[in-house]
Design a protein that fits this description.
The protein has 462 residues and is an alpha/beta fold. It has 2 domains: 164 residues, Cytidine Deaminase, domain 2 (3-Layer(aba) Sandwich); 266 residues, Rossmann fold (3-Layer(aba) Sandwich), CATH 3.40.50.720. It has a 9-stranded mixed sheet with strand order 9-8-7-6-2-3-1-10-11. An 8-stranded mixed sheet has the order 14-13-12-15-16-17-18-19, with helices on both faces. Helix 5 links the parallel strand 12 and strand 13. Helix 8 crosses helix 9. It starts with a strand and ends in a 33-residue tail after the last strand.
Amino acid sequence: MTTTVVIPYRLALEIERATRLELETGGVLLATIFETPGKNLRLLVQDVKWVAEGTYVRREPSALSVASEGYVHALGEAERQGAMAIWFHTHPGNEAIPLPSVHDDQVDRDLADLFRLRTGAPFYGALIASPRPHSLAFSGFIQSEASSPIPIDRFWVLGDQWRLVPAFAAQLAAPESIFDRNIRAFGPAIQHVLGALRVGVVGCGGTGSAVAEQLVRLGIRDITLVDADRLSLSNITRVYGSTPARVGDLKVDALGDHLVGIAPDLRCKKIASMVNLEGTARQLSDCDLLFGCTDDNAGRLVLSRMATYLLTPVIDVGVLLSSGSDQNLKGIDGRVTVLEPEGACLVCRNRVDLARAAAEVLTPNERQARADEGYAPALPGVEPAVVAFTTAVAAAGVNELLERLIGYGKRPRPTEVLLRLHEREMSTNTAHPKSGHYCHPDQGLIGRANTVPFLGQAWPSP
């Protein structure tokens, strides 16, 4: 079991600034605790409530004591939000050790029952952080009344920059020599992050298979593949891992076997299903990051919601080829959209056809009945696809992951890249959530993983 704190970049910056103060600083993190189908725990942070200056009883570089007035208001807010409360404080100093002292242990014992009682949550949490040159170091745990402490293993920061920080006591092995060229480019720390990330790829066709192969060759060692379709003869021209002998096999099986052939130590989960089914979407909640490479609108709507409700970033990748009546290629357009907590969803960006999405989830009989009545749009047929173009856009999508981990691009980072390969042009943009929409912070749904129904949407029957 792995326990991960997932936190928007804006709140992570507040915590990092607090670690750089000369005096110890305290606060309370409000978080939704979500257990994934893989029995991992994700603590989805929605807010940080800082201890007010006047409520410190003692505040020194190496000591801290707070009156109850300093945190009780945060417990009330946690109860209103249905969140758990995590007591947080700093150990200042660039070489400080973020491990609990004897005094810290006693504070945890004193606070645990009160925090659980006042919030109504089954868990008490504690977190200690110290500054590091470009990030922080931390230790922490959560604990129910009847259980032993469960250590917090990772700190996953999302937003303008992505950081995966292991717990202070984590033992990291040296990267394998196979990644020597990667390490020469971006160093061993990023290679460790790639090896620790759990990535889902939704859609295993021309774009998704190219994304998956690049991820595995970069060092991703935990990947989930989602696709309900089987390989056809025409897939062989662009789907990585496909051969004539695999025609008729499930795409996830052909691609998964291919990826394990590249990296025998790969943990590869294969889901032969559609992401617009609730059970499939729930299985993806174990992932730290998703690549959306599906060509259906209904699936994209689900992935878009996961970025908000589960704080799971999504890199959505699309390719469109346009041909004239003479079958000459006229346009080669690619899109890479990064969906993050507190950012615009695909609906706010007008990147999803809602009418088509509704039609895609209908049964064939329902679709025909509505079409006869004039209510269902015609679904698109087979679209043109060429391996050179799907691979190029897939690489642009993987680049967005690397850039957010490494930080070699301009800041603030755009959240969408548009490629016009036929014109040899590329442009970027950033969009903001529309007021009143589910992805807007004013709706209070960011990190609310336990909503009923799941992701706040209706689900078709499997």
